Amino acid sequence: MPATLYERLGGEERIQRLVTDVVENHYSNPLIRSRFANSNRAEVERHVVEFLCAGSGGPQCYTGKDLVSAHKGMNISEQELVAAMDDIVAAMTKNGYDQAEKNEVVAILYSLKGDVVRL
User: Fold this and answer.
1) Which residues line the annotated binding site?
2) Binding site, annotated residues for heme
3) With CB atoms 3.0 to 4.6 Å apart as the test, which of 15, 18, 97, 119 could cross-link to 92 if both were Cys?
């Protein structure tokens, strides 16, 4: 049986390292950093780790809001979504992930566009 995306991402410990870099990129990205100005960084990181672990086939449970509730009223643009996805790909590159995993993560994120953009 082929490995799950969770397994190919290296499990919770490696995903935690990835998410730390993703969140750092988001907080530094001039296109989206204002979205995080009033957020609790540790909480953001925890929820992203849970979301990525659970969504990639890991045993973790996601305890945050559903995507629509979390992003409703934010009116996130397509440009901001692309900036966030670029941050994720950059963090994946930094952490040595293969192109196949990058492509799969980007495809999953793009499939969630309707739950995030222009709400």
Assistant:
1) 47, 71
2) 47, 71
3) 97
